Amino acid sequence: DVKVTQSSRYLVKRTGEKVFLECVQDMDHENMFWYRQDPGLGLRLIYFSYDVKMKEKGDIPEGYSVSREKKERFSLILESASTNQTSMYLCASRLSENQPQHFGDGTRLSIL
Amino acid sequence: KQEVTQIPAALSVPEGENLVLNCSFTDSAIYNLQWFRQDPGKGLTSLLLIQSSQREQTSGRLNASLDKSSGRSTLYIAASQPGDSATYLCAVRQGNAGNMLTFGGGTRLMVKP
Q: In this structure, how many other beta carbons lie within 10 angstroms of the beta carbon of residue B15?
């Protein structure tokens, strides 16, 4: 069964902190994605990775960076958290290009 | 730029009804289309994936159709149950946009017992 695990369901951080969101998949998937979901704006792609150490910007990469040192783990980094980064963050993975994306349960991040 | 629209935004039906959720997209040059379900406060669960060369896909009580030329997809749910209550999202992948999915705003479905 497909399993994408996000390290935290809820997270509260302060403005200016460096924040790490972790995502792990156990299906040997090539591609991994980070989205954020906001009311009225839907899901928007932040970054994706099509292989280890490979990354590409999505629609809204500003203020974020990512790391993929191992195939199973894709990290999203908020370099200096700001209140407008309060959101629901969703990680997804996919075996290859024409396969479906599978999502984790999400991390609800609040920046105070 | 691709735009994906889902109508209606919310739908309430009595248990047992068959129902159709709609998804339309502006650029027909898609690679595939995926339907998801999202429960409150949770991530997305993949329901069905239709490749651009396919007309429909079925899984249990769910049937998704794709008409690329008219820019439409429908998700048909047979014999709806209260457990089907959730938000349903469609997403299209462009043929020329790498790995990006463009999501619709979703239809919030409530099935009343």
A: 13
Chain A (55-94) residues lying within 8 Å, Cβ to Cβ, of chain B: 56, 58-59, 90, 92, 94
Nearest to B43 by CA among A36, A76, A39: A36
Kindly tell me if the per-residue pLDDT of B64 is higher than 70. Answer: yes
Q: Under the phi-then-psi rule, with left for phi > 0, alpha for psi from -120 to 50, and beta for the rest, what region is B98?
A: left
Residue written as token pair 């039906």: B13
Cβ within 8 Å, pair B99-A50: yes
Q: For residue B42, give the chain A residue with the closest CA.
A: A105
- CA dihedral (A101, A102, A107, A108) in degrees, to 10, reads 70
Find out whether the peptide bond into B8 is cis, omega within 30 degrees of 0. Answer: yes
Residue pLDDT, tens place only, A24-39:
999 999 999 999 999 8
How many angstroms separate the Cα of B56 from the Cα of each of A16, B51, B81? 48, 9, 22
Q: Round to whole Å and give the CA distance between B7 and B80.
A: 18
Whether the CB of B98 is below 8 Å from some CB of chain A: the reply is yes
* Residues of chain A positioned with their CB less than 8 A from the CB of B6: none
